[in-house]
Amino acid sequence: MSNIHFVSADEAVSHIPSHCHVHLSSVASVPHCLIQALCRRADAGDVTDLHFHHFHTEGPAPYSEPRYEGIFFEQGFFVGPNVRANVNAGYADYLPVHLGESQKLYREGFIKLGAALVNVSLPDAQGRVSLGTSVDCSVAAVESADLVIGVVNPNVPYAHGDLLSLDQFDYLVQDDTPLVTAAFAEPTPTEVEIGRNCAALVEDGDCIQMGIGALPNALAAQLGGHKNLGLHTEMFADGLLRLIKAGVINGACKKIDTGKVVASFLLGSQEVYSFINDNPDVLMKDIKYTNDPWVIARNPHMKAINSATEVDLTGQISADSIGMRIFSGTGGQLEFVKGATMSQGGKSITAFASRTNKGKNKIVSAINPGGGIVTPRADAHWIVTEYGAVDLYGKSLQERAKLLISIAHPDDREMLDREAFDRFGPHWHNFSI
Fold first, then answer.
1. Residue 3 pLDDT exceeds 70
2. Can you count the helices (H) and strands (E) in the chain?
3. DSSP 110
4. Enclosing H/E stretch for 419
5. pLDDT digits (tens, 9 = 90+) for 60-84
6. pLDDT exceeds cutoff 60 at 1
7. Which residues belong to the active site?
8. Is residue 416 part of a domain?
9. Residue where a domain stops, chosen among 144, 174, 204
10. Quick one: average pLDDT of 395-415?
């Protein structure tokens, strides 16, 4: 790297003008050194009115804090734990968008980016760098922003897939801050049961999509006896890595990207990050590709597995909020739901515990007021809890209600039955499925 000209983080961000929109590379690969430099500018009164956009970020998020009100304004495409309280207090905000369309906001000028700040790997012999664990909409940001700053970090893995040229950057900064890691989440007994019920819907040769956390880990643990699975997903972590290393996920039956693992961003252990480094069997791609329903559908027997905060008795699925409280984001749920159902032999699966950790039922007669519908009732297919799995597709409202009550927590079924009677009228109890 001797022929690469680096500047300090403070020098690089000094060129970001006030009153502009700023993209951050996200999840595990946030350019924290640039954020800290911007905070120093803000503390000196040298910048104001910056709007930040990104997928969820790990680590400190000062751009969402009350102390920078009027100077920084967080408008993320997905709400993580580090900004959730500030978003719900109004100091920061959430910009609803299907993650696959986040890049469209940049490329088609709905958000005019003044700057893109991204972490990148060490360059290869051709002067190309990888966005490593966070490709997401950062390729579009680099293509679209007026000013592009890259943080060359040896801890960012050189991932195959969509690469960038050093020529695309206006300024380069050197940093060696480790990427944020996430420990393997051990599933609870309830999650193990949900995993078993989901795994029963997955067959040898299927292509799967799921995220991270204890529930996906529980499902992954139940897939150890399967063969020739494929993986086309937004993200993956340690649970799925175990299946890849065991040869259960090998992509042999995929019709596109055969033999390849395809994802757009990652959050996991250092083992996950090391695994994708210079690994031609893993493609880290633009979110435009990974989340395109038409691309997803090209792999037959696609099984998309997502979660929910609430599901009402008609099959409406809330996943980004709990009532009026924003919890996460739309994500790519509906994109994978549509892609899986368009796939030959595909299935969309929504899996969750029947009750919250506080004992509140998640199968409800009606979504809490203010709660967002991420997957409409017409797109709801398989619903899975620890008490079973039911398919809502092709079912009427009353049929759906009967099916959903059958997999609700046993202590909630009588209440839900009364609420269904109130909704559907006196013929409810005469109706059977």
1. no
2. 14, 24
3. S
4. helix 413-424
5. 999 999 999 999 999 999 999 999 9
6. no
7. 234
8. yes
9. 174
10. 97
* pLDDT tens-digit series, residues 222-248: 999 999 999 999 999 999 999 999 999
Same domain membership, residue 259 and residue 332: yes
The CA-based diameter of the chain, rounded to the nearest angstrom, is 80
Residues 384 and 407 in one domain: yes
Alpha helices by DSSP H, listed for 92-188, are 99-107, 138-144
Q: How many CA atoms lie within 13 A of 19 on its CB side?
A: 0
Task: Take residue 118 and report the two structure tokens written for it.
Answer: 């991204």
Counting beta carbons within 10 angstroms of the beta carbon of residue 36, is it exposed (0 to 12), middle (13 to 18) or buried (19 or more)? middle
Only one residue has tokens 């083992």, namely: 271
Tell me, yes or no, whether 88 lies in a domain. Answer: yes
| 152 found inside a domain | yes
Summary mean pLDDT of the chain: 96
Q: Given the structure tokens 């998020």, which residue do they identify?
A: 61
Question: What is the CATH classification number for the domain harbouring 406?
Answer: 3.40.1080.20
Residue 234 belongs to what domain range?
Answer: 189-428
Query: Which domain CATH number covers 53?
Result: 3.40.1080.10
Q: Which pLDDT score, from 0 to 100, does residue 2 have? A: 52
**pLDDT of 428 higher than 90:** no
Query: Does residue 52 fall inside a structural domain?
Result: yes
pLDDT, greater one: 216 or 334: 334
- Neighbouring CB atoms inside 10 A of 296's CB total 30
Percentage of the chain modeled with pLDDT above 90: 94
Position 283, amino acid: L
Token pair of 363 as six digits: 């199968």
* 3-class SS of residue 209: strand
236, two tokens: 């993956």
SS (H, E, C) 207-227: EEECCCCHHHHHHHHHCCCCC
Token look-up 């929910």 returns 308
pLDDT at 63: 95
Q: What residues contact residue 327 under an 8 Å CB cut-off, 6+ apart?
A: 79, 84, 309, 320, 321
